[in-house]
Amino acid sequence: MSLKKKTFWGGIWNSLSSVSLTGLNFTITAILARLLSPNAFGIMGMIQTTIALINMMNQFGLSPAIIQGENLNQKRLSSLFWFNMLVGILMTGIVFFSADLVALFFNQNSLAPLLRLISIVFTIVSFSFIQQSLLRKEMKFKELFNINIISTISYGIITIILAVNGFGVKSLVLGYISKNIITTILIILFNRWLPSFRFDFKEIRDLLNFGVYVFGSSILNYFNRNLDYLLIGRFLGAEALGYYTLAYKLMLIPVRKIGGVVGNTFLPAFSQIKNKPKSIKKYYLKVLQLISLLTFPMMGGLLIVAPEFILSVYGENWIPVIILVQILSITGALQSLGTTVGTILLSQGRSDISFKWNLFAVSNLGVAMLIGMNWGIIGVAVGVAIFSFYSFWISFYITGSLINMSLLDLVKYIRKSFLYTLFMMSIVYLTKTYLVSPNIEQLPIQLAVNVTTGVITYAFIFLIVDGKEYFNQIKRLKNVLK
């Protein structure tokens, strides 16, 4: 199969995976929000910082190195496997024995036993790390889709059953461990590569040299994405973090999944044409345009209907989340595009720039949140939004310089999505204000009317202005793939 066909079907499967997982996680979170308290979500938010560390540390920057790497023979892969296993076991020990210190940092004594329990995941995921990277390198996204769907459904069933039976926050921890066990088993079944019992450091030195910058960037990116959790949990408490965690899951995880589709699909493809910056620029701008067409209306619409949405889906216990969702909608729209920056940097072999960028981002984000903390979680959300706005332009200026893409090129490709979204938001706001009754007992009906209005309005203006062009592009794509 040609690279173009692999990329196309990879995009289809990754998109399907993103939509399906977003829907599943939304449903699971909505059910759990009715069963668990904001305090429980806050404690899980503290644990989430460890989970994020698991996902980052255990790779040691090697996944992009494997996708980029050549001559991946049995000896090299086996050496990588045993090196990664060593890292996983080491991280399990570090988290297990430092659990009391983490609990002390957050001033939550109940955190320590939960951290010791979840530390085993470091070792669990090490067993399937190489196999998962190979599936991505070979662009076998259908298999990864099946794995993610099965493991997420299993996680939802296990966690909800435990929550119903009074396990509280422990249900979230046990559900997460179960999910990773199931994922590991499925990955090994779908890619039955097995390591040899040998290790040669010389075989992986070049991959580690590339990975060390990715690893450094990952550490900085970890603080970039979790500094808000750390500061809110430490200084504002579990309940405040619970509200922020729900808003964060609701707003940023879906758009990051959409951006993740680009990373998972196009990093292998862009890596194969890394010496053709004009081709990368052409396809990258179209990808950014497509992402903006999807995420801008999602974020703009949710900003308008946040009160009806939160009260209808999660209940009155979560009213403080409304203003957080409205503020973070700005961040969500920008980050849906910003999450693709790393794909270009890594495809060009510039993990060093990624490291330097993340160093800049962490320091600036930390300042923004520390200032905002004077006004509580709302101030932190505002700080995150402000940082996201100005860092967005800087990151694309740096990335564009590698593929001869200007900021004007970027604006040209996303401006229609922005204008369509503004028009849709205006219509939904007018409908909400003047045509729908504000009766609190009819909130689900109001939500349904507003969402339907938004979808119809956005689809209408898109089809009128751009429909013909996109239908022609689909026809050309069909002809290419025949």
UniProtKB/TrEMBL annotation:
Pfam families (alphabetical): Polysacc_synt_3 (PF13440)
Superkingdom, natural source: Bacteria
GO cellular component terms listed in the entry, alphabetical order: plasma membrane
Transmembrane segments: 12-33, 39-58, 79-105, 117-135, 147-167, 173-194, 206-223, 229-247, 283-306, 318-347, 359-386, 392-411, 418-437, 443-465
The keyword Ribonucleoprotein is annotated on this UniProt entry: no
Location of this chain's protein in the cell: Cell membrane
Membrane topology type: Multi-pass membrane protein
Keywords assigned: Cell membrane, Membrane, Transmembrane, Transmembrane helix
NCBIfam families to which the protein is assigned, alphabetical: PRK10459.1
Family, as annotated: Belongs to the polysaccharide synthase family.
Protein name, entry field: Polysaccharide transporter, PST family
Species per Swiss-Prot/TrEMBL record: Halanaerobium congolense
